[in-house]
Amino acid sequence: MRLDPLTGRLMLALLALAALVLGMPALKPLFAALYPALDRPLYEAETFLTLTLDHMALVGASSLIAVAAGGLAGIAVTRPWGAEFRGLLEAVATMGQTFPPVAVLALAVPSIGFGPLPALIALSLYALLPVVRNTIAGLEGVSDAVRESARGLGMGPWETLFRVELPLAAPVILAGVRTAVIVNTGTAAIASTVGAKTLGLPIIVGLNGSNQAYVIQGALIVGALALVLDAGFERLAAWSVRWRTEG
Amino acid sequence: MIALERVTKRFGSWTAVDAVSMTVEEGEFLVLVGPSGSGKSTLLRMMNRLIAPDSGIIRVDGADIAGLPPEALRRRMGYVIQSVGLFPHWTVERNIATVPDLLGWPRARVRDRVTELLELLKLDPRRFRTAYPHQLSGGQQQRVGVARALAAEPRVLLMDEPFSALDPITRGALQGEMAAIHRGTGTTIVFVTHDMDEALALADRVAVMDHGRLVQCAPPLAILTDPASGMVRDLVGREEWGLKRLAVETVARRVRPEPAIPPIPGPPVSSATPLHRALSEMVARGADRLPVVDGEGRPAGVLHLADLVRDPSAPPPVSPPVSPPVSPPVSP
User: Fold this and answer.
1) CA of A90: how far to CAs of A99, A130, A135, B258, in Å?
2) For the residues B288-298, what does the mean pLDDT come to?
3) Which CATH architecture has domain A57-199?
């Protein structure tokens, strides 16, 4: 069986990620040789597997929240009954984006405390804008002719939404989710400053303790994870427009 | 079938449809014609409740549609629009099956119906069933649009300028298709166009609209010979009036039931041929008589040029339409 290039790319990125996560201890001699001044050339406080899974859980949870909230809000403001709130929603989402995540974290800590929760809130807010913006753009991109014929043939508002509008908007919405997830994968590393366990932990510890080996180890895996997610979304995007390339 | 009583629709201060009363008979092919902004599309879209009238009553089969659930009403009325509006992410089959799927028809019945409709609209099911809309030409897309509207065997078909965006040859072919479908199924059709020639060619009755009002509602022949106003006469156009007049009647109306003696050379024309085609045939053959056969191919008489020029059964028109000056020749 031949793999299509997109699936191939995804497999390759997954292999690279698995090799880095599981094989990092094997690279200890390499880091020792590169940084002979360091006592501990390999981050060993937790396994990289634990950190990666925690990192993915944080990104996944915050993205799910953003997709659920942003998607529903985007759908609501493109219905006739929700159109009034569109300006407000876009303003809130834009603010969420322009607010530096570090500031959200700093503000969240005094009220919520340290741990993964402030990180989850900050990342969810941060991912909201691309999801909201693309949901609105995607739904608005559905042509009037298609909408009119759906209505004229006797589809109700929900039938039109689920059978016609959302499938046609899917590629654009998916692009928004992809942006949100990729950005969050990077931003989640910063969440380690408020005590969330992520791949940012070796980076922060390394920066504090002038241990460049730690920083490189954390950054390499974050990068590989971003590649995996990007390739995964690429694959999903192709699937969502399969009808365009058929035949 | 469809009865309108003083139906009015305003958009702001502009009255799109102004107290229109009319009925569409069961099985009739009614064409609404008028310039843009005359309210014809608005009137059509009120018939399936895409637009709600400000006042007046619309009844379908005696029931006031304001009291019917709009989705259920629309599912029993086919709807075709100029921009087609096929669902681009669905195959031709699924597009055609839209309304049967909404109505929950069993899969096998939907499949058979799609095959039947593809054949009716002259699209090869093997080739088109699984195609996507973007793979089709404009004319093929509108054929699918018509098939989709007919899928659940609606008794009424509403068509809003369905062929206006097509090239003349494709449009002509689809007009022929519609006439055949109308004859074959007896579906009541309400058809909107701004093209009077299209209206005259297709309609049982032509309803002429202007500034939201119904100006005249009459068979094509009456629109031509007895226009209710100067506006209707302008819409018909003075160019080639005579040919249009001939086009709304068939050879059967003018044929003399006499044997062709002496025998007339050349193949006979069918009694169902429109008169302008028969005239064209005479010019092409350089003949002033044509042999005529009926639907079964039996000799039905002779068509004389003199009877084309003047209807032997009708008195001369009271107010003959003014023709444009013949010379100097008008540049084409």
Assistant:
1) 14, 10, 11, 82
2) 88
3) Orthogonal Bundle (1.10)
